[in-house]
Amino acid sequence: MRPVELWIAGLDAWAIALTFAVAMIAFFVLGSWRGRRSPAPAGDTGTKFTDASMALLGLLLAFTFSMALNRYDDRRQAMVAETNAIGDLYTNATLLPDPTRSEFQQLLSVYTTNRLEGRRQRALRNQPEQVLLEAREMQAKATAIVARMVEERTPITVPLVNTLNNVTSSYATYLAAYRERLPGIVLVLLLLGSLIPAFLMGRQSASNLVHKSGPLAFGLLVTLVIYVTFDLNQPSGGLITVAEEPLVELLKSMK
């Protein structure tokens, strides 16, 4: 990711929404001050520019929300696919002879437990290098066990290799979905698209063309939409997160 995307990814949704709210209030006050300094000519309401800017902001909000929702759905599908791949590999491991069966099942159980605990502790956000290192080590151990089964010409070798490949590829897909963020230029466009209508409404309020309750409600709605959008955009933390039930149910089946 670019430095801007990395910086945005480190911000919480509430911080972004609060920044938007403060900036819109400031521009509304600035517009009101400007409106008192240079009142609009008689008969010139100037509402057409305000309406046009608000319509453009609505399009930007809808477009951005759709992008964030798609990324959230990609993360959910990636986690379900990875959980299914681990479950398939665990099922194949039950067909191996002991002691390899117990060793492989224990490895997969620890791997799944680490994945679940890592999600709950936001490890991929706070300690990404450590999480990737642990995942690679676990996958390397699983690969070593499968390689040993290949050398021993175990009948279950082919499906075992295929399911192991599914686990590694699904984990890579999950990482790609986790790292995907909204482009930084989108945040800039949203900020400009929010500030301009706030400034224009401030000018109109100075001429008593707009009641102050209207801009207040407008700013509140925009702030809420911004919060939900960027809450969907952040993979860990916030109010909207991908459900952990697939991993929890898989661990129950393993035990």
Describe this structure in words.
The chain has helices at residues 3-9, 13-37, 47-93, 100-120, 123-126, 128-151, 157-179, 184-206, 213-233, 245-254. It has 255 residues and is mainly α. The chain has one domain. Helix 4 runs antiparallel to helix 10 (245-254). The protein is rod-shaped and about 90 Å long.
Give the helices and strands, then pairings:
Blueprint: H1 3-9, H2 13-37, H3 47-93, H4 100-120, H5 123-126, H6 128-151, H7 157-179, H8 184-206, H9 213-233, H10 245-254
Précis, in short:
With 255 residues, the protein is mainly alpha-helical.
The proportion of residues in beta strands is under 5%
Computed CA radius of gyration, to the nearest angstrom: 26 Å
Compressed to H and E, one letter per element, the order equals: HHHHHHHHHH
Please count the helical segments: 10
Number of strands: 0
First and last CA, distance: 39 Å
**Structural domain count:** 1
Helix content: over 70%
Q: How would a textbook summarize the main sheet?
A: none
Class from secondary-structure proportions: mainly alpha
How would you describe this structure in keywords?
255 residues; mainly alpha; 10 helices
